[in-house]
Design the sequence.
């Protein structure tokens, strides 16, 4: 049987079956699912998962309680192409649909019910930029309409055992506030909007969907795409997760005590093709209040409104889409 990362005949690309591998222990325990290659060019999770599968199959590791499901390649089409997406970003607007319109809709119709069978999700990713590993977390406990949640303590406890020292939260609420601003601006200007960019649920990806069905979840950015250390980060995070949850009999890791905690609070859209950054920014670069981040096409400066960090700057963003996010420092996660 050919490996998924071996060359595929052109006519078979996009036709591979979806694959998951599950192990169940003899004793009662949590139900964990681990994803790789949600984005097809982010292969560190795939490598890490396959290494753990080899450990399990050769009895270097044993599942003693609960269950764990591995999905080495979540988006086979994007993975076969070596690209971020097949037809669209799988990690946006992730819901089952009655009438699939693109490849990622088919993935969603398989993946979402699979996620709902589990309690905990670890989703392994990587970044274009040369950033240290970091984890994206969910909200604090709440009963709001956007992302009600009751597992704040469990999610944070697991996050502190992954082996990374930087944590970011506030994604979906910040995305939703950006949607609200787009709608308000369009009402004033009369500009036509992309319907996806005016739907707060377009910000829902794997972790947000997992929380919507009662679980908790973490996105782990293991490092840059091409860093040979990134698969090792993912591998260690998997082992730590299995041990901490009691799925294996390994000694549970201690929580990290020194870390950086950041909360996303605002997204700035690119409004015009000639909006430009003041320089080449990288995620997590510090900002001081009043720093010049960029300029609008008419010369209006875009300034930092507070001390913090810039996150996910995208000089190639299309007008009407996210240009960059800003964060503030927190004293807890």
Sequence:
């Amino acid at each position: 049987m050919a490996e998924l990362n071996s060359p595929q005949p052109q006519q078979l690309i996009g036709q591979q079956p979806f694959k998951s591998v599950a192990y169940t222990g003899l004793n009662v325990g949590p139900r964990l699912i681990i994803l790789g290659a949600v984005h097809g060019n982010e292969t560190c999770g795939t490598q890490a998962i396959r290494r753990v599968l080899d450990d399990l199959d050769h009895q270097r590791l044993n599942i003693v309680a609960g269950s764990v499901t591995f999905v080495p390649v979540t988006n086979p089409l994007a993975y076969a192409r070596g690209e971020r997406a097949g037809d669209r970003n799988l990690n946006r607007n992730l819901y089952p649909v009655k009438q699939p319109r693109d490849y990622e809709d088919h993935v969603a119709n398989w993946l979402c019910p699979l996620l709902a069978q589990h309690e905990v999700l670890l989703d392994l990713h990587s970044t274009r930029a040369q950033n240290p590993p970091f984890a994206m977390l969910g909200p604090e406990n709440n009963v709001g309409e956007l992302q009600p949640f009751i597992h704040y303590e469990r999610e944070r406890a697991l996050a502190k055992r992954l082996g990374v020292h930087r944590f970011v939260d506030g994604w979906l609420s910040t995305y939703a506030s950006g949607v609200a601003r787009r709608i308000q601006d369009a009402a004033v200007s009369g500009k036509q909007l992309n319907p996806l960019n005016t739907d707060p649920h377009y910000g829902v990806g794997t972790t947000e969907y997992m929380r919507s069905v009662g679980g908790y979840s973490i996105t782990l950015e293991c490092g840059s795409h091409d860093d040979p250390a990134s698969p090792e980060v993912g591998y260690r995070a998997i082992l730590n997760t299995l041990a901490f949850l009691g799925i294996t009999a390994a000694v549970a890791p201690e929580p990290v005590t020194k870390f950086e905690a950041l909360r996303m609070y605002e997204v700035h859209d690119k409004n015009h093709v000639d909006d430009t950054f003041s320089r080449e920014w990288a995620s997590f670069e510090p900002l001081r209040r009043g720093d010049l981040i960029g300029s609008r096409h008419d010369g209006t400066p875009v300034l930092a409104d507070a001390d913090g960090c810039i996150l996910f700057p995208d000089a190639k963003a299309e007008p009407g889409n996210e240009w960059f996010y800003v964060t503030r420092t927190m004293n807890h996660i």
Notes: Residues 10-258 form a domain with the Aminopeptidase fold (CATH 3.40.630.10).
